């Protein structure tokens, strides 16, 4: 299986190299006035994964026990269309799909429809109050404008690591649509301070397409009542200010900016979780309160050589109510689990979300321009760690990713090879105990223009 993975990867690298040498990536932009300040623009993003995964113990694929899997999938395929129509009016839309592999459309009854995967991620309108200043933008619609952290609203095409730390999108596909919510927001820059204030109308858990979990003494999202969500995010820019074209936040500027930020954010929603001890009258409602604080650095090291350093370190405090824990496996290549393991822990899943605290850090170094020869691009190696102390886990959970980006043409065309080291847990009485580790190797090809 690994030989197949390496052979396909080598073939893909050859094809990409020829393509990159023979064509230039051009911007798809239509000017609406002479100086181009009013425009319409379209972009396209596609991330293809080829992956070998050591399955968590007890994993099954369509009823068959498996020790490992190999799959090919589309992690993300997106089309963006947006524009500045006047000095004050901006709109943004994004359409696409996520996590499309051989199990696309699969459900608990081994049926489904693989053709119904694409949807609108964002549809928003925004008004810039002052023409020549970024003091205040007011927007509304379906949007990823969030509180909490920069990785709660990431620009996927510009990230350092192969994938974002999804745990920072804390309610993803529970009360939102792939981290997007129907919201009204204010954002902008006051001096050196970036700010975002968001009022969201979250979706009920009953419409997320999954069977609702049983009400128990561990918190889950409430199926009764509806309450608005309040969010905020703030960043102090010590050096260069960051772009405000869209609500998305850049992963790395590849040495084109000198950014040092202190960041903090929150998400709160009342009575959005519930627990029950033994009888109906014991039902207790809990508020969601999520907090984060972080430092972000992204700056050139040697401008002549084109080298740069990117680093992030953040602390996250999550309160979803007593005992909340949710497994998640990105584009999970498995369907079920047997043995002393929680439901949903099959394949590549790990306890990604929970009540408790987590730390996340990443560091990457952009090597010199044309490291691989003129026109062949350069390398961007990285390492990241998510370390979580969730209330339900008896042991601290550490998930480590290490890899390297081959930037064929910066973020427009790049190959990423990533290895992930993750733990797996077994139930012992009321405890979840770490029993070992598993690994995953992914080769990703990104086209983004």
TrEMBL record:
Keywords: Signal. Residues 1-22 form the signal peptide. This is Porin. It comes from Chryseotalea sanaruensis.
